[in-house]
Every structure is written in C-alpha cells, then in structure tokens.
Amino acid sequence: MNNHIIEQLIELVGKDYVSSDPSDLKEYGQDWSKIFEPNASVIVRPKTTEQVQEIVKLANKEAFAVVPSGGRTGLSGGACATNGEVVLSLDRMNEILSINSIDRTLQCQAGTITKQIQEFASEHHLYYPVDFASTGSSQIGGNIATNAGGIKVIRWGMTRDWIVGLKVVTGTGELLDLNSGLVKNATGYDLRHLIIGSEGTLGIVVEATIKLTTPPKDLTVMVLGLDQLSDVYPVMETFQQKLNLTAFEFFSEQALSKVLEHHELQRPFESTSNFYILVEFENDSESTMDIAFECFEQAMEQGWVVDGVISQSESQAETLWALRERISESISVHTPYKNDISVIPSKVAEFLSSVDEIVAKEYPDFEIIWFGHIGDGNLHLNILRPDDLTIDQFVEQCRRVNPLIFDKIKQLDGSISAEHGVGLVKKDYLPYSRSEVEIALMKSIKAAFDPKGILNPGKLFDQ
C-alpha cells in the first residue's frame, strides 16, 4: 500500500486508527478458519458511518480492495485478507443506539458484540434469541453478513428472521436505509434480504434494527443417549408433539470424549452411548415436566433412548449445555477441517450414514468428530489434523474428498454451507448448491451494488 493512500486514510479516521503493524495485519487479516495465510496491507478502524462511506469512495478512486471485518469468528475465510487488501474493521462502531419496548426493537451499530445485545435486551425484559458459541466475541454485522444460525434455530430461526432494518454502505459509497424497522412493507424488492448472507460482497452493514421477543420461561435441558442414529427423529417427533422445544442438538461419543479431555466436566450419566441428543424446552407450566417424563419413558420403551438426564436447576442446565457448546473449543487444538452442511431433517439419518461411510473409507487415519443442530438438519463434520501433516497437506487431502461428500449433498437437495457462509473455503463448491443461472444472477447483483468490485473480492465466487 503506497504512502499516499495511507495518508488519506489517516486523514479520514486519525493516525491511531490506521495500522500496518505486522501483528495487527496478522490479527485482523484472518478469521477462525486458520487455513489461509493473512496478507493485509493496512488496517483501518472507522468510528462513524460517514467515515466508512469516505473509505469506500477512496477505494473506488484509488482502486484498492476492502475486506469488511467484524469479530472474525467466521469459519469460511470470508473475513480473510489474503491479497493485500485494506481491512476495514468495524470494532469501534459498537454502540447500542436505542431500544423501543413498544416496537420491541433494538438499534445498534454493526460492531456491537452479539452477547451485549442479548444482555441489553434482557435488562429491558426482552430477548434476542439468536445464540451460538461465539456470541461473546462475534459482532452483529458479521452475524448479518453470514446469516448466522446457531443452537436455537429450531424455535426462533436464523439471523435473517430478526433483522427489521439495516443501514448499508454500498460498493460506491452510497448509504442505503433499508426497511426502517417496519413489520409490513410491500414496496417491491426487499434489498435488506440481499444484504443478509452476502458476506460483505454487496455492502458494509453499519447499523441494524433488531426485532426482540418475550424471554422464554425456565429453560430445561435433557441429554439423552442413543445407540442408533436412525432413532434421532422418532425421538424428536415424540418430544415436538407435546413440548415447545427451543433446541434439539446432536453430538457423538467421540465429540463428548474430546470435551471431557479438555474440561472439568462430567459425563451426563454413567453409561456411554454412540450418540447424544440435547433437548431444551420451556418448562412453562406445572404439567410440563410430567409431559417431558412421559416423552422420555415412551422413547425408552420403544428402545430409541438407552439413558438420560434432566436438569433440575439453571446451573445444571448450563453444565449440560457445556457438553455440547465446548466441542469446537476442545477440538480447535487439532486445526480441524470443518464441513458445515445441511439437508432437510427427514433426510439427515440417510445423509449422515452415507457421508460417514465416505469419510471412514477416504480418511482411514483421520479422527472424525460429528456434532450439530440436528433439529434443523444442520451437521458439522470435523476432520482432525494428524500431528504429522502440515496444514497445507491436510487441507489438500480434505479437499480431495469434498466432491464425494458434496455429490451426496446435491443428490439430497442439501447445502454445502448451512450457516458458516461460503467465503474462500467453499467458493469452489458453490455449484453443488446453486445452479449456473443462480450464480450468474448473483454476479449481476454484485456488479450492481459494487461495480468496481472493491468489496471483499474473491469471496463467494470469482468475478
């Protein structure tokens, strides 16, 4: 990056907020995927929407690329700067601007931490339900850019379902004010939904208006042991028919073992099972617990469930959740290659069985960890890197097998990326989930929002 551009960036945001220090370039130039070598040219940290606009206009004028950056907790390489780009970090734009108890909405800047939004809503007796393991460090702008899902989707849906307004800076530096928090707005194309999930390729989210809801009552957790994967959905159907489920999560014995190796936690019960289901529901009436026990007894009688435990307090519920939520952290030391994939729930058992056969055959020496949001059809396939392989060697072997896995996904009309996005990791495989016509239209939309291609180039697809 030449000094002339750096001087202009300093003039826009101040000397303290422009950095080319090697440690900053490394920190801000990559996300949690850890696959790609960061190669940012400079980091710029604006404080206002107007500064973001001016940076984008400067990028158009001086022909440099911009990578929008939030908490960088993504796993698809979507926030990686690998080709000398300017990283535009939104971490200073982190204010909660207002909350409206009548409209049940919260307005905040894009750099606001997800957990802060949850806590602020709770202080006002409201609830933001989109939840996942990285809420303590992820930012709402990044959540919007990837349409983040997480552990409560079965009840409350994805990020998309909770965004009722956006302010976005396009690739030309124009500011769009989209939907303004309206519940009903039938006035043509809803550009808000184009931005959500676009991974910073169409515009930079600077503010969001978020819908809130009533807090759930007395969330109670069951962990159930199963020997057969095919028994998952009879169990789910049994519980869903009678209880208001807020989560239905899955993890394997191998995944649980990794958590127990790295954390001071106990097995949920003495016996071991091949698979585990975590069920969460609202204990909102005196009869709810009786109904939960009836469902459990029915599942035991049918032979679907071999053992189980139910939380008796909020702290016990948190401990049971830790068995599921700490899996990613526990396997991170192995630099796992992650596949975030989905099919409709009724096809999960077939899909997982087929893919398990593929990976067992193709990766005989690799350790495989399965877990995920099985209630909405989303599974995380984690392949752990052996110590004797470099990251490049390991990734090359994993990519060799990807087409076999993605062929099966395509046969089942599934998705190669359920909630992590496409970024750099999955862009070569986009045709497994999107048709040629769809991809061509996506490129046309990209050109309309960002005619000079300065926003997050090389992500999703190549122009």
UniProtKB/TrEMBL annotation:
Protein name: FAD-binding oxidoreductase
Domain of life (superkingdom): Bacteria
InterPro entries assigned to the protein according to its UniProt record, in alphabetical order: FAD-bd_oxidored_4_C, FAD-bd_PCMH, FAD-bd_PCMH-like_sf, FAD-bd_PCMH_sub1, FAD-bd_PCMH_sub2, FAD-linked_Oxase-like_C, FAD-oxidored/transferase_4, Oxid_FAD_bind_N
Keywords from the UniProt entry: FAD, Flavoprotein, Oxidoreductase
Any one GO biological process: respiratory electron transport chain
Domain spans labelled FAD-binding PCMH-type: 36-215
Molecular function GO terms recorded: FAD binding; oxidoreductase activity
Transmembrane regions: none
Family: Belongs to the FAD-binding oxidoreductase/transferase type 4 family.
One Pfam entry name: FAD-oxidase_C
Cofactor(s) listed: FAD
